[in-house]
Amino acid sequence: MVVELFDIAVTAYGGETAILSPSGDLSYRELADRVSGLADALAGHGVRPGDVIAVEQSPRPASIAALLAVLRLGGVVLPLDPVLPPTRRTAVLAAGRATGLIGADESYDRLPERVPLEDPPADAAYICFTSGSTGEPKGILGRGAGLAHFVTWQRDTFEVGPGDRVGQLTSWAFDVALRDVFLPLVSGAALCLPESRSVDADRVLGFLSRRRVTVLHTVPSLARRWLAGRAPVPLPDLRLTFFAGEQLHGELVRDWRGRIAPRARAVNLYGPSETTLAKFWYEVPEPPSPGPQPVGSPLPGTQAASADGGEVVIRTPYRSYGYLSGPDAFRPGPGGPDDLLYPTGDLGSFDASGVLHLLGRIDDQVKVRGVRLALRAVERALESVPGVVQAGVVDVRDERGEVTLVGHVHVRTSSVTRDSLRRAVTDQLSAAAVPAVLHLGREALPLLPSGKLDRSQLRALAGTPVAAAPASAPPASAASITEVCEQVLGVSPLSPDDNLFDQGADSLFALEIAARLEDVLGTPVPLGLLFEAPTIAEIGALLTAPVGAGPTKAAP
């Protein structure tokens, strides 16, 4: 259905710009021609309706054309972030049952070993992933009607159309990237692809300013980081900022408007992936009320209630088809076989005007930079490292509502290192799941009388300082690496054996360091670099080592 909406936009706005990218711009008519040609090529490769085709994200229009071409053929798209760790990438492709892969280099590879989806519904359109409670990639099968309903609602409600420019900053590892991509392309607006995956304030805000972006989706923690830049770049053209994925505070909206986007309306979106993108919205007034903002009112066709215990339960005909495997995402409602309810796990209440306010979780799941994580899944990943007896992970919030993960690990041997723990979490989950602080010790973790972890005591211990590693002499080639790391982290001096995570790095800083090194060195740098080489010395060794054989591809 999104393809049909795109076709309507092509008819109405054929000569208007559809995509602005570092490699060139495309009009709606030119993009439509690319989509048709690629769809024919994929059909020639044997792609059929219902096949799952993974599409790698890139800053080129070809990746956008690939998404539309797969949908044009009746296929199911699996958007793929090319910087996923190899273990996670393999798990995602297997769990998603992808039978083909369109790479960031525009190549097509068959994946013949994959077992295809069995009798997928005709309206199946995309697959996205959530880690859930186990840490294993849990595939969600999205429907075209749900995706089309959301972007149509957003387009019409906020009058997005020709003249608007939508920035695409979200990783394709998350389903919300689909609204970045398809909102402009069903509206006659232009989709703006960035030159870099950098999250640095100067680069992101510079990109948004140069492209005169008018509509932006982001998570509060990123906006907060941009505001903390040396001199935030004002964005006078930005008229709509959609926040989602984390608790939004009024103080952030006040600063965002006051320092960056003076004329932007701020909208708080809420909805689990299982119910398709967002199902609630709240426009933050001026001035905003202090503290956490409500998530507002339901989209058309959506109903919600606060069930026993305060859990928010959502009913919508635009939900996903649920999980590809495992337990059903939905439970039966009282209205018959088509009446399905989604228990969100979020606690909430409705005020007198019917506006929904979220109050926390009924389980151990938290949101870190918009990524839903189960603390027990992170603990299991840490406990998979030989020599670990037990791990406890807690979420610590600052006064702005930003979440930091702190891990406490009981080890039986000094051979367990923070680097090995971080690699285990990155391989099994995602970069956002890596605790920003890791405390290692030979002492058993505190327990409650019930035998469960005493998380309140672990939170009290979260501020214990971490000892720095001894320094060694830096190699001569480390000067530029050191300079980049010191600039990004705001820490100086750094020694070559300082673990950068112990010096304040997190997954966003890791991404930024890799992006800046790529610019400085003039050579491709994997965005997951810091998780493989967390010190300046190791980064230098890895980047100067001979290039090994990369992952093999299936024959087309």
The radius of gyration is: 23 Å
**Beginning-to-end CA distance, first to last residue:** 29 Å
In the CATH scheme, what's the topology name of the largest domain?
A: Rossmann fold
- Helix tally? 16
Number of strands: 25
CATH homologous superfamily name of the largest domain? Answer: ANL, N-terminal domain
Mean pLDDT: 86
Largest sheet: 5 strands, mixed
Number of domains: 4
Q: Give the DSSP E fraction (strand runs of 2 or more residues).
A: 15-25%
The largest sheet has its strands arranged as 11-12-13-14-15
Low-confidence stretches: 464-476, 546-556
- The amount of helix comes to 25-40%
Structural class: alpha/beta
The CATH first-level class of the largest domain comes to: Alpha Beta
Apparent shape = globular
Label the CATH architecture of the largest domain. Answer: 3-Layer(aba) Sandwich
Give an overview of the whole structure.
It is a single chain. The chain has a 5-stranded mixed β-sheet. With 556 residues, the chain is α/β, with parallel strands linked by helices. The longest helix is centred in the first third of the chain and has 17 residues, at 28-44. It contains 16 helices and 25 strands. Helix 3 links the parallel strand 3 (52-56) and strand 4 (76-80). Mean pLDDT is 86; it is low at 464-476 and 546-556. Helix 8 (220-227) packs across helix 9 (250-259). 30% of the residues lie in helices and 22% in strands. The two termini are 29 Å apart. It folds into 4 domains: 1-142, Rossmann fold; 198-363, ANL, N-terminal domain (Rossmann fold), CATH 3.40.50; 365-460, ANL, C-terminal domain (GMP Synthetase, Chain A, domain 3, 2-Layer Sandwich); 476-544, Non-ribosomal Peptide Synthetase Peptidyl Carrier Protein, Chain A, CATH 1.10.1200.
